[in-house]
Amino acid sequence: MRWYQFSAEETAKKTGSDPQKGLATKEVTQRLKRDGRNEWKEEKSASQLALFLGQFKDFMVLVLLAATVISGILGEYIDSIAILLIVFLNALIGFFQERNAEKSLSKLKELNAPMARVLRDGQWSRVSSAELVMGDIVSLTAGDRVPADLRLIAVTSLETEESALTGESLPVAKMTEPLNKEQLGPQDQVNIAFMSSLVTRGNGTGIVIGTGSNTAVGQIAELLIDTKRKQTPLEKRLEKLGKVLIVIALLLTALTVLAGVYRGNPLYDMLLAGVSLAVAVIPEGLPAIVTVALSLGVQRMIKQKAIVRRLSAVETLGSATVICSDKTGTLTENQMTVKEIFLSGNSYTVTGSGYDPSGGFYRGGKESNDKALIRFLRYGVLASHAKMIRKKKRWLIDGDPTEGALVVAGKKAGLDADKLTDYEFVHEVPFDSKRKRMTVLIRTPEGKLVAITKGAPDVLIDKAVYEEVGTDKKPLAAKDKKVLYEAVDQMAAKALRTIAVCIREFPAGYEPKEEELEQNMTFIGLNGLIDPPRQEAKDAIIDCRKAGIKTVMITGDHVKTAAAIAKMLHILPAGGKVVEGKDLDRMSDEELRTEVDSMYVFARVTPEHKLRIVQALQHVGHIVAMTGDGVNDAPAIKASDIGISMGITGTDVAKEASGLVLMDDNFATIKAAIKEGRTIYSNIRKFVRYLLASNVGEILVMLFAMILALPMPLVPIQILWVNLVTDGLPAIALGMDKAEDEVMKQKPRHPNEGVFARGLGTKIVTRGILIGSVTIIAFMLMYQGDPDNLIYAQTTAFTTLVMAQLIHVFDCRSEKSVFARNPLGNIWLIGAVLISMILLLAVIYITPLQPIFHTTDLLLRDWLLIMGLSAVPTVLFGFMKK
Description:
49% of the residues are buried. By secondary structure, the protein is α+β, with helices and mostly antiparallel strands. The protein folds into five domains: 3-42 and 107-226, Calcium-transporting ATPase, cytoplasmic transduction domain A, CATH 2.70.150; 59-101; 233-301 and 673-738 and 756-880, Calcium-transporting ATPase, transmembrane domain; 306-332 and 534-665, Rossmann fold (3-Layer(aba) Sandwich); 337-530, 3-Layer(aba) Sandwich (Calcium-transporting ATPase, cytoplasmic domain N).
């Protein structure tokens, strides 16, 4: 049996506690020694040094370190220093990004109540919550944070807010009776007060049944420890790219050495030449440029109201195939709102959303504020204790969200609770989960006493004797009750939570007994409430579907509510499955993986369920984005490919587990992030294409020369100049390119897609071959077998290579053709090309630089030849494929 199945007496016996005296101090000491403090263990964090050194485990970084060693052997110390600086800079950025990434458990600990009121040795006292033990008797009152898991043994109108733990959007009314059911989730264990939940109403007493890691929230801490972050798609692709470059470098080195030795060149010279080519293969600036591109994306995302905690998170979101979204506060406003009123046989539509009091009441399409409606709204306000608060241009509710919705509805009709002071509060019968209702006794300005009862419609309709119709009342017959039940059903079908209102009037001077307040009642009407869906979320979900991204709702709410909201938001298609947590419990992991693609809504789920859902989707090949705001979302957020938390309503635990924080809690911001992520990856492909095509061109120039038994067309310092200047600035500018028009009309990339997919490898090779060919042609035309022309020919080849690359960079802006986009559309690229050209002219025409870079002056006719040859690769392929 489970704790919720035991009676209060059985719980006290099993825990060895006395509800009248509590535990003895000596017993507390022994239990503390046996069970430990009321804290959960933290994941052992890596030292600062280990975290920094861990940045050098990346395969691409290891490739660059190898390049550093090779450059040093060749005497290219400037190159070595440049590579080391790049590697060190990337390591620092990664270190500072990750240093704050694993604070989830320490933030979880902050949810612990610092003090608790405990009964020990027959005396009530306040002790540190960390010192609570199994069997302690703990007192709770409104405003307290529950210090441990408690089996409640006495309650008075006790309600706790558990949304951070269970996902429930409403406070839960608590009771003490045992629950004779198996496999109840936390949200249904109404006789348990869970650690970290907040007491919003009433008071109660409970016996500690779980401390530390044995609490519900402690189990989440255990999940966080066991859950490991997945390698992001970008990290996987760059790792594959590094491996490809290593293979190419080794093959080219071997090919060059063999070709040179075959031609009769000394082995030592050919080894140096081969290693020089191998170094040229590796784009030293690639990691730095990737970091710059991601950082620029981060800055753009801040303007879109999203904070990126890990650089790779934005690109990962661009790869997403599924978004698993929490309902409450993410897809909905997390603000209960009266949307419909049923009164005297008429339905009223209520406009406005959330706690903002703007809106009105419409009947039959026309605005209505008739007397019966105003009276009904006044009853709702008088029977509620919630208050509206204006804070930073935002309306908030202090009190129960349901009562807050009734107060907001009243304010829409001009009924301000603070101005109803001529109505005197006399008595209250508090809400009880068994009675499903509450009653307040009010004295009107005329001196009459009115008992206002609000609660569950099924209870109040049965108890009511009369029904108010207009300003009159009539007996409530069976057929009339049927009409009311039909109205309740119609509201429920719209995902509306129904609250009924009844009254009983007493003559002036009569003092009724408490039991009379809920007798001979007159039924007044029904309120239909909902936590409304965000309109922008609905639009964003539709746009995501067009982009090939599936949205899945995962919530702790009831299945009917979840399904109805999902339909409103266009999440649930015809034939889409709605699954409850208890259904997941019956499914094996293999069964879940088989069915998960047909599931769109998961209701009444636990943190373990959320984690299973994310992992099942990942197992079948999806890139999963998980959104959420509560403690219960944190494990799934951390396990997902990209975790997204809410900045306003989100707990610190959820934020620390995530890679992206939405400052406006708006699902629509996710769509903007997806667009940004896709743009960043597209830009990464652009500069990878540019860098590698340029490097292929450099390699082939050298290789062609060896095969044709020509002198070296490029000297090492020229190759270094090209790699650091011509390659670097334009590549960074490509990383700042704007999104192409069709970026959100494309399907998500396949999770296993490599960097060279969709023809990128072919583009790199073909453009590289042409760049290398025109460069070697320029060299041969100027050299003509005369050693005296060598520097002149090398200068021409060097200039042709640079110009071919600077023209080719415009071809890289589109996957289609150089003519597909406005060449002036990226002002940063224009600037980068101009700077590169100025630097090129400097090393050619500034006399002191000529000996260093092995250059000489070029004439106008030389430039005409160079520009003609340089334009061939880009223009030729521009016409071949549009």
